[in-house]
Amino acid sequence: MKIGLQTWGSEGDVQPFLALASGLVKAGHQVTLCITEVSERDYAPVATRNGFELVLAPNPQLPSADMMDKMRLAFKALRNPLKQLKIINDYFFYPAEAAMFDAAQALCANCDLLVRHIFCYPTQVAAELSGVPVATLYPVHNILPSKHLLPFGAVDVGAWAIPLWWRLAQWFINRTFLAQINRLRVSHALPPYKDVLTQAWSSPALNLIAVSPAVCQPPSDWPERYQVCGFLNLAEGDQSDPLSPETEAFLSQGEPPLYFTFGSMLTPDAASWREVFDIWYEAVQALGARAIFQLPLAAQQTVNTPAHILVLSRAPHRLIFPRCAVIIHHGGAGTTQASLLAGVPSVIVAHIADQPFWGQEVRRLGVGARPMVREKMSSMRLVQAIESITQHPEIQQQALALSRQMKQEKGVARAIQALEALRSQSFTHGSHAKIQGR
Questions:
Q1: Is the pTM of this model over 0.70?
Q2: Distances from the Cα of 13 to the Cαs of 36, 137, 155, 200, in angstroms?
Q3: Residues 326-352, buried b or exposed e (16+ Cβ, 10 A)?
Q4: How many CA atoms lie within 13 A of 427 on its CB side?
Q5: I want to staple 169 with a disulfide (CB 3.0 to 4.6 A). Which of 27, 83, 151, 306 is the partner?
Q6: How many domains does the chain have?
Q7: How far apart are CA 436 and CA 432, in angstroms?
Q8: Do residues 55 and 33 lie in contact, with contact meaning Cβ atoms separated by under 8 Å?
Q9: Residues of the chain falling short of pLDDT 50
Q10: Could you report the per-residue pLDDT of 385-409, keeping only the tens digit for each?
Q11: Residue 362 is part of a domain; what is its CATH number?
Q12: What are the tens digits of pLDDT across the range 286-299?
């Protein structure tokens, strides 16, 4: 079977698709993965190593360094994740809509089945026009309406308020995105949608939630087309980047270090990382701990640190996280689940979108400190959060127990099984239109 995958976003949005593409190839399928990446990382080595075709549909108007800095300040000022999502759409997604739609049409012309990132509504439009079945992949589980689960950005004031929170979330998302999505649909003679969450972002056929069942038990009111397949992580040997000799040497020289990373929340511009570096540094000095700081390449070249602190630009989470004592990170979906899989407790310093939710989930699961938001981060608060973990061994024990459970899951295999069943269903019904009940 020829399968096309299309994703958009940061590394955390791309990694599940890399894992799925690699697994599909091993299962005997031909795979093309199309990426629109906001930071323009190079995934060609992973594609070459694992035998799938990589296609880039770059954003032709990625923001300048100056604009990135302005958006960083806006994110610090805004506490509403829905408003943050609008900024992301206006600067990172919508300018790439035409490029993504062209790429989606090319996928449809050559594939039997598509899988798209939740935000990739151009893929859905192209699939409907071509009659190709399409599934949606969700990197987080609080964006699917349920009377048992709070939506992103909501405050827990009791179960009675959950339906009201969902109505508010749907109203705001529709106000922000619906007209934009329907312009593309109507321009291709497709009927407009009435709701973004349950129509534009959701597939009528299959929705894969790439979250561990140990984290997300499917609510009873989700329909069967919502399937929690598990964390989609590249298998052993599928990643092409080993740890550097310098990193290996540092890890072998003493106690497991603290690992600090804010991922794509930091850019090479000094305004993005300098204050963060200073706070991290003060916290590590106060703790007297060994630490690794993951910073953009420009920062790595311009800072001097003592021997007990290593600065690097990147490292595979699968290889380095299990060798660390605590992960201090931004709470991205991929980073959070990688820390859970590694069995290492977290301190989450949330910046935008779903990151506060992941901080709450880590706390709920008993595998991390009380989360904080970026604008309230200080060296003292980091010290207190890290000590709340290191001084309580039961948190480490719970993290290891959760890791053992996750290692028994087969997220990629479950996702592939669901996709193959979807393709069989399309043959049975004769067309994608019939799958959608038309």
A1: yes
A2: 10, 10, 25, 18
A3: bbbbbbbbbbbbbbbbbbbbbbbbbbb
A4: 8
A5: 151
A6: 2
A7: 7
A8: yes
A9: 431-438
A10: 999 999 999 999 999 999 999 999 9
A11: 3.40.50.2000
A12: 999 999 999 987 77
